[in-house]
């Protein structure tokens, strides 16, 4: 969940809060999936494909637990900013408020703007024209890519720039 807040100095912030017990629930879900896979192996006989599925499940689990660490996401925001802010001047990412960020709470500056669904066709085209060069640079330049660039994670900011969210 992401909430809008205000710091004592008046700065508007976005506060992303992890639901209590989420890590435990993810762990339990992965455990159950592994048990189902093990039972299937007993019934059908262990096969190479079952080992592959188990490896994929382990990889997915590792990725899910990494996603639950908001300090990791905060680090991605900082790295993206460091790598691309100069070469993509029309693209803005939030600034992390580190003293208020933990593994389960991410605090960052609030970006003011509108989602693509609320834009007219010309405004959407302006977003594309800002996003395309930055995406190309991500793919062919530093190789550090915002991996979830769907319309829910972008906005046309009030200052006319493109805002990227959710790293």
| Rg over C-alpha atoms, rounded to the nearest angstrom | 20 Å
Number of strands: 7
Binned, the helix content reads 40-55%
The residue-averaged pLDDT reads: 86
| Broad structural category | alpha+beta
Strand content: 15-25%
Helix segment tally: 4
The largest pleated sheet is described as: 4 strands, mixed
Query: Termini separation (Å)?
Result: 14 Å
Order of helices and strands: EEHHHEEEHEE
> What is the 3D shape?
globular
Low-confidence stretches: none
Strand order within the widest sheet?
3-7-6-5
Describe what you observe in this structure:
It is a single chain. The chain contains four helices and seven strands. By secondary structure, it is of the alpha+beta class. Strands 3-7-6-5 form a four-stranded mixed β-sheet, covered by helices on one side. Helix 1 runs antiparallel to helix 2. The two termini are 14 Å apart. 16% of the residues are buried.
